[in-house]
Design brief:
Blueprint lengths: L4 E4 L7 E4 L7 H14 L3 H16 L3 H28 L30
Antiparallel strand pairs: 1-2
Helix pairs in contact: 1-2
């Protein structure tokens, strides 16, 4: 099922954006979750949202996931720094050119073609 994006505004509050996520569950899980929603006076969608929020909360306290998140952040920061340097070079900051070593026996200067605009 494709994801859908909808916007809802609640009074003067900031707009909230929602994504639709289709989840396949076994019939028994669906029946149990529907029963829980009926008992709680909520909707099936609300119960799924609560379950997802609970999983996110537990993941935010998992040391292994926190470590992996930190590593991901560091990688993103390295990539962002490299891209920022590339953009800075593109926008006019001087780029360091690679110097080719001179051949043995040469003066180290490159030969240039004579200009056709010489006056004498």
């Amino acid at each position: 099922m494709p994801e859908a994006l909808s916007e809802q505004s609640t009074g003067g509050e900031q707009e909230q954006r929602f994504r639709t996520v289709a989840v396949r569950v076994e019939d028994t899980v669906h029946a149990q979750l529907s029963f829980i929603a009926d008992l709680a006076g909520t909707s099936l969608s609300e119960e799924v949202r609560r379950a997802i929020e609970g999983r996110i909360a537990s993941a935010q306290e998992d040391p292994a996931l926190i470590e992996r998140a930190q590593q991901a952040r560091e990688q993103i920061e390295r990539e962002a720094a490299a891209r920022a340097a590339a953009i800075a070079g593109f926008m006019g900051k001087p780029i360091v050119a690679q110097v080719t070593p001179a051949k043995p026996g040469s003066t180290g200067r490159r030969a240039t073609k004579p200009s056709s605009k010489q006056g004498s």
